[in-house]
Specification:
Layout (H helix, E strand, L loop, with lengths): L3 E7 L6 H11 L3 E8 L5 E3 L2 H4 L5 H7 L5 E6 L4 H12 L4 E5 L11 E6 L8 H9 L2 E5 L6 H10 L4 E6 L4 E2 L3 H15 L1
Parallel strand pairs: 1-5, 1-6, 2-4, 2-5, 6-7, 7-8
Antiparallel strand pairs: 3-4, 8-9
Helix pairs in contact: 1-3
Length: 192
């Protein structure tokens, strides 16, 4: 059976990608996680428990949320494809993997792409726009009461993405999001 890949992307840094990945990992057992950090000068892959388990780091949050294995990829853009191939091969027997970061989307074909954003699209990076265009699901991490204008802007860029609201700082997400993720992954597992 092919390993399932969930790509968690975002408009920019600090939108809550790790919080969302952690929420999914707590609900879907048997998944590992790959955290991708783009660098300018060097490339490294680590699954060293001491590094991964450092309190306050995204890798520690992913591990504590139930990831089978966590691999932290720090890579130049040019080396990401090779690093991802190696990292996925290190996952082992996991049912699937959550890959956090925008750059991997240029090199992989995930089974599910989730795009995360805050209250508006004005600060979106170019890689964020590309991720939004490919997204299956969009999560607006906001406390806005009326996000309809924002939903329209999202539909103008990606008319097929399903949009959910969340307040990830409080660990909340709109009812139906996790069920949708599970159905997409289970359907892919049984039908793919």
């Amino acid at each position: 059976m092919k390993m399932k890949i969930i790509s968690v992307t975002g408009a920019h840094s600090g939108v809550g990608k790790t919080s969302l990945a952690a929420l999914i990992l707590r609900e879907i057992k048997g998944f590992s996680a790959i955290k991708v950090t783009k660098t300018e000068l060097f490339t490294s892959l680590t699954m060293d428990e001491e590094v991964i388990s450092e309190k306050g780091k995204d890798s520690c949050i992913l591990k504590e949320s139930g990831a089978d294995k966590v691999i932290w990829v720090r890579s130049t853009y040019e080396d990401i494809k090779e690093c991802l191939t190696q990292a996925v091969s290190m996952i082992g027997n996991s049912r699937g993997v959550i890959i956090e970061g925008n750059s991997p989307l240029d090199f992989i074909e995930p089974d599910l792409v989730i795009f995360l954003m805050k209250d508006d699209l004005t600060e979106m990076k170019a890689s964020g726009r590309k991720a939004l265009e490919r997204a299956d699901l969009v999560v607006i991490n906001t406390k806005l009461n009326d996000p309809e204008t924002l939903k329209k802007e999202i539909r103008d860029i990606n008319p097929v993405a399903v949009v959910f609201l969340g307040d990830l700082s409080g660990g909340k997400i709109e009812k139906g999001f996790l069920d949708t993720v599970k159905k997409r992954i289970i359907m892919e597992v049984t039908c793919g």
